[in-house]
Amino acid sequence: MKCLRQIAAFLFAVCFIMADGQSAFATSRIKDIASLQAGRDNQLIGYGLVVGLQGTGDSLRSAPFTEQSMRAMLQNLGISTQGGQSRTKNVAAVMVTATLPPFASPGSRIDITVSSMGDATNLRGGTLVMTSLTGADGQIYAVAQGSVIVSGFSADGAAASVTQGVPTSGRIPGGAIIERPLPSRFKDGVNLVLQLRNPDFTTAVGISDAINAWARARYGAPIAEATDSQEVAVAKPKQADLARLMADIENLAVETDTPAKVVVNERTGTIVIGADVKVSKVAVSYGTLTVQVTETPQISQPSPFSQGVTAVQPQTDIKATADSGTVAILNGPDLKSLVTGLNSIGVKPDGVIAILQGIKSAGALNAELVVQ
């Protein structure tokens, strides 16, 4: 009863705070909640070889493409590889991936990720040889090369092995040089399209209103329109510079809103609760059932000089214990108070997740429940 009174007092305090006028809306800059459609990232991919490994590379019998790539590379360097088989274990075939940032110019550098394709056990100490990186259109946009940095490690012996992290994947900071600019340029556009990172009609309309209020004072006419929950179109005034227009718009402050959502992860016991989550009046009871199985086999030995054999007599003890659950009537303005109340009566995270799923099934959870 004392725990229930504490829960009720806490819920009343939260009700008073919410009724006192605190708003769930948060104020953010446009640049923090939206991105420019023309300023999207582009994915790059390439195939290459990592050399200089200490016997931890691909076994060429298991990964024949590594030997083929190595022979092709040596022939391009003017070295004949006819007649004879390679037995080196210091080479590994890898996939190289990178993200080309928007408005990247030739000569600038980007980070790359190197991942093993064959049966190499460790890329530590290796060097990626010159590898071209292509985009979705098949054009080469960057060239990568450099020493691979691996955070994971592995050590093994005759009867044991230890592995921490992923030693078959690494990074090369600034390992790729951009060779080709993107086809489109920012100045070629006639308008701006802002894409919300978290689509929401209320936030999109708020962005449009904030831009129009600023544009009326600056240009004397509105220039923005929310096309849907994710996009806001901004028309460029004739006398405006597109880059300066974007710089002024992205620093405007708007009130953001998000739908009520609860995210739970049953594997880790993580619970994330949105600020606008509300719980209707509901009665909650939680009890656990523990089943303990104990095996204590009895060994029966035959008498001396007898013809009997040793026998095993199985013996199993099963004990079931049910914890009594307390029924609590909860009526809170948000889910945070409910979880706090459940924690105060000793409910563990896995129990809280089960209760949340039950409250959602009962229709008392006024939010979206996402179970990962």
UniProtKB/TrEMBL annotation:
<keyword id="KW-0282">Flagellum</keyword>
<keyword id="KW-0966">Cell projection</keyword>
<dbReference type="Pfam" id="PF02119">
    <property type="entry name" value="FlgI"/>
</dbReference>
<feature type="signal peptide">
    <location>
        <begin position="1"/>
        <end position="26"/>
    </location>
</feature>
<keyword id="KW-0732">Signal</keyword>
<keyword id="KW-0975">Bacterial flagellum</keyword>
<keyword id="KW-0574">Periplasm</keyword>
<comment type="subunit">
    <text>The basal body constitutes a major portion of the flagellar organelle and consists of four rings (L,P,S, and M) mounted on a central rod.</text>
</comment>
<comment type="similarity">
    <text>Belongs to the FlgI family.</text>
</comment>
<comment type="function">
    <text>Assembles around the rod to form the L-ring and probably protects the motor/basal body from shearing forces during rotation.</text>
</comment>
<dbReference type="InterPro" id="IPR001782">
    <property type="entry name" value="Flag_FlgI"/>
</dbReference>
<protein>
    <recommendedName>
        <fullName>Flagellar P-ring protein</fullName>
    </recommendedName>
</protein>
<keyword id="KW-0969">Cilium</keyword>
